[in-house]
Amino acid sequence: MNIAWRIVAVIIGGLFIYAGVIKVLDPVEFAGDIDNYKTLPWPIGVRLAFYLPWLEILCGLALITRVLYRGGVFILTMLMSVFIIATIVAKTRGLDISCGCFGHASQYLSFAWHLALDFLLLGGLLFLWRTRLPNDGALA
Amino acid sequence: MKSLLRQTAVLIGLALLPSIGQALYYRDKVSWQTPVAASEMLTLAQARGAADLIWIDARPEEEFERERVPGALLLNEDRWNELLPQVLAIWAPEKRVVVYCSSESCGSSREIAHRLRKEAGLTNVFILEGGWEAWKKEKP
Which domain holds residue B20? Predict the structure, then answer.
């Protein structure tokens, strides 16, 4: 169980670090991806485009290093949930969106694949959420 | 619970530092109030009076086949690699590239213009204000 938990934490942490780095390299494009959801006004979306990738990277690192681990899992679970809801809402509104999650590499994925991957990540995060650390409760 | 909140707050706060730094670095390179800076837009009147324009249609292929700006070339995200060479073949530094999509609110013209500048290294790339809707409305 402990090994399974470590593997899941490293994979999910690594994925979020990768996703964050891709977006940090091109925040303008990520701002455009946020704007495509037509949910937030541009001035807010563009500021989030500079902030969220760094939050993803730090939370990914938290999962891998186990420093601030609970906070990292909590934030990523919240981000993932909001993202899944926003994706479904955008789809029902007929918006043709590129999530921008993994840069241009992800734009060729169908909506069903996007959603399946998102739920897989959310499932992994919930699995991590249920796992107790030996020094649970400690800041580091 | 207290530890979770503290960890969450620490991560949220830590992510602010690099994002503020990056935003400061990008402060003159990003349009903070509107998706596209005024200097990157071209009105229909400006486009009509200009010579040496290359029109790029960033809409889906079916819409392009139905009707388009005379002489426009199709270039969208779905077939970027396949269609880009035809644009590069006629591009010259003194020519202005004008990208349009369906309307003011669509994001594909912005994305294509961004990729033309960043990935293809083109200069003088503009977005048509109002998109295809504006062209249709003011068609002579």
Answer: 1-30
